[in-house]
TrEMBL record:
GO terms for molecular function: DNA-binding transcription factor activity; sequence-specific DNA binding. The keyword Transport does not apply. The lineage of its organism: Bacteria, Bacillati, Bacillota, Bacilli, Bacillales. This is AraC family transcriptional regulator. PANTHER family: ARAC-FAMILY TRANSCRIPTIONAL REGULATOR, HTH-TYPE TRANSCRIPTIONAL ACTIVATOR RHAS. It comes from Paenibacillus odorifer. It comes from the Bacteria.
Length: 370
């Protein structure tokens, strides 16, 4: 019992570090948060996460610094302060010790202009520690990346009418060194951009962590991607342990409500997170990915322990959702009886990328872990 409590404390301290690494953090302060002595806390943290607490602080600071060093004309003093160091010379020594080269030299090696064609490609670059030069930023359609990078991305490209791809005409005049694009572009778009830029065709239908590793190799960002994947897997194991679905996996259903229609829904990201990584079982018998319309009666006959609901943001869809909640069969679902129903949103649940996968995992943790 003591071991479980200690592990939870370590998890909470680790999350505190992730949220506050740019501030002044001491070993004594972190140990105090855990209720342990400094030496015991440091030993326990290293045993659990392979590195000491202060090594983890340094890792996060250097990762952030490497992103800032990609920007043009940013003073080293500003970067040092932005990641938690009051002395730029001390920051430079730490950076060189970790990376093997000085911040100035690292910055000079990063001056390539990378563009992306779709919003989810930003989720791969972010995990590799890269800020794109040109990307489809929109407060409505890519809100996470808009809030993250609105000031950092030099060229914000308009999304096309279907909201999936950026406008190619806006890319053609830009000095892009490499364009990152999914493989399923239309032949017309392919023809228009292939004559202008070197292109990295990313297969976003395969496991996104595999695709991230392959992209990182192309961009010489293997270490950044490796660290990101290691952090994701550590967080995943923590959430899996706390959910405790291993012995009795819950039956999980995701529904999508659009106007007067209800769909049993499973996209690549949902399949990866809920059914592969977290080990839930699908309430819907159709294998693989699906977006299949179902009736009120069919929904009421399914075994559902946990229900995730995506409601399109229009009045008709909301009315359908309210009507569904009054249906007798729906109210008899185990998920409804046990209040295991969760409303989720298209951002991030319609995106498939390493960053979206991590964000979905965090949403599950917030919704389901006391």
């Amino acid at each position: 019992m003591q071991k479980q409590s200690q592990k939870t404390d370590l998890t909470e301290v680790r999350r505190y570090i992730e949220e506050n690494f740019t501030k002044h953090l001491s070993l004594a302060h972190l140990a105090n948060l855990s209720g342990l002595s400094s030496s015991y806390f440091s030993s326990a943290f290293k045993q659990e996460y392979i590195q000491s607490p202060m090594e983890y602080v340094t890792q996060l600071r250097i990762q952030k610094a490497k992103q800032l060093l990609q920007k043009q004309d940013v003073r080293l003093k500003f970067i040092a302060e932005a990641v938690g160091y009051s002395d730029e010379f001390y920051f430079s020594r730490v950076f060189k010790k970790v990376e093997g080269i000085s911040p100035t030299m690292y910055s000079s090696q990063q001056k390539s202009n990378i563009g992306v064609v779709t919003g989810n490609m930003m989720g791969y670059l972010h995990a590799a520690g890269i800020i794109p030069f040109a990307a489809p930023l929109s407060a409505k359609w890519t809100p996470y990346y808009y809030n993250l990078w609105a000031q950092e991305i030099e060229h914000k490209v308009t999304l096309t009418q279907n909201k999936n791809y950026c406008s190619p005409n806006e890319l053609l005049h830009l000095p892009i060194d490499l364009l990152i694009s999914p493989k399923d572009l239309s032949s017309e778009l392919v023809k228009r951009i292939e004559d202008h830029f070197p292109i990295y065709w990313l297969d976003d239908k395969q496991d996104c962590l595999v695709a991230l590793t392959e992209l990182a190799a192309r961009l010489n960002k293997q270490e950044e991607a490796k660290q990101w994947i290691t952090q994701y897997r550590a967080r995943l194991e923590d959430v899996r342990r706390r959910l405790d679905w291993t012995s009795t996996p819950p039956k999980v259903l995701v529904i999508r409500i659009y106007q007067q229609q209800i769909f049993a829904y499973c996209n690549t990201g949902i399949q990866h997170l809920l059914f592969q990584d977290l080990g839930a079982e699908s309430s819907y018998e159709q294998p693989g990915l699906y977006n299949t319309e179902i009736t009120f009666d069919e929904l009421g006959k399914l075994k559902v322990d946990k229900l995730f609901t995506i409601i399109c943001p229009d009045d008709e869809s909301r009315a359908t959702w309210h009507h569904l909640q009054r249906e007798v069969g729906f109210r008899q679902l185990e998920a409804i009886k046990q209040q295991q129903i969760y409303v989720i949103h298209s951002d991030p649940w319609f995106e498939y990328s390493p960053v979206a996968l991590k964000r979905m995992l965090e949403e599950v943790a917030v919704m389901m872990i006391p």
